[in-house]
Amino acid sequence: MNQPPAVINLNLPRPPLRLIGAALVVATALIILWTSYYTVAAESEGVVLRFGKFLKTVEPGLHFKLPLGIDEVSVLPTRRQLKLEFGFYTSGYSNPDQPGQEQLEEKSMVTGDLNAALVEWVVQYRIDDPKEYLFDVRNPGQTLRDLSEAAMREVIGDRTVDEVITIGRQDIEISALTRMQELAKRYKLGVRVDQVQLKNVNPPAEVQASFNEVNKAQQDRENAINIANGDYNEAVPKAKGQADQTIRGAEGYQFKRVNEAEGDVASFNAMLEQYIKAPEITRTRLYLETMGDVLPFMGPKIIIDDSMKQLLPILPLSIKPPEVK
User: Cα separation of 132 and 134, whole Å?
Assistant: First the structure.
């Protein structure tokens, strides 16, 4: 016996409109609440836009805004130093403007003496004007990379390859930093370039061996100069000391001779003064003193008077002549 088909009643009871309205109100309230606050990190600043137009900048912390997309907030790390690497990259970088692969063309440069060099460098900067950074330049990060590369190529193009690789690195960093700061200010990037640091600067691989030989020759030259300077520093002070000693000895001898001469002059003047007072007595005294100094060294002597009437032998005197030096 066939049974009749089952009949399904599709007229299920509908939820009341009041319940639907309450759910919509709750959902809307949650959306409004969720979009009415935001948080700015400690190293950042928030830029608030109202209907897409700049409104203000806010400090780190919890803030409130008009919900439902009326106010929009862009958070920029203005209190943290950012870094861009050129010609290479470090894994784990956080800057979105840093390419994730090695840029060979970026580091290939030509020096002022028409030699090739591979230059890698780092630019450290800060966002100091969030409004300019967001609204005055399209894609400010890439613009900063482009002007940094242009400034570095300009500076490298004014130096020789020896300056780039060896002695001129610090001057290149200072010149490139000054040029980048000037361009960033001119283009109103809203960033402040703090430091430019050269990393690896090498010639191309094809000429690496020749550059190594040149560098070795330069090092040998510097070593020879240092050795010569050492010998100079040792010999010159010694010669100066000997010269000073000789000069001091000559000055002492001069002082001695002058003093002796002045003493002789004073003695002669005193003797002259006495001679003027009593010429005969002084003459006789000088004669006797002179004979007393001379006679002991003359050997056997015979003294006679004018009439030759008597000879007076003089016994040998026991006076030894002074030693002649």
Answer: 6
Instruction: Please give the Cα distance from 296 to 321 (Å, whole number).
Output: 7
The number of residues making up the chain comes to 325
Tokens matching residue 84: 């861009």
pLDDT, tens digit (0-9, with 9 covering 90-100), for 17-61: 778 878 887 888 888 888 888 889 888 999 999 988 888 889 998
- DSSP category for residue 307: T
Q: For Cα atoms 230, 231, 234, give the angle at the middle one, nearest 5 degrees.
A: 90
Amino acid at 33: L
Identify which of 202, 183, 204, 195 has the alpha carbon closest to the alpha carbon of residue 122. Answer: 195
State how far the alpha carbon of 164 is from the alpha carbons of 33, 85, 216, 220, in Å: 59, 18, 17, 20
Strands (E), the chain: 37-40, 45-50, 53-58, 61-64, 71-76, 82-86, 108-110, 116-127, 191-202, 302-304, 311-313
Longest alpha-carbon distance in the chain: 214
Q: 102: closest CA among 7, 199, 184?
A: 199
What CA–CA distance (Å, rounded) separates 2 from 267?
176
Q: Residue 174 is which amino acid?
A: I
**pLDDT band at 323; cut points 50, 70, 90:** low
Residue 98 CA to residue 123 CA, distance in Å, equals: 11
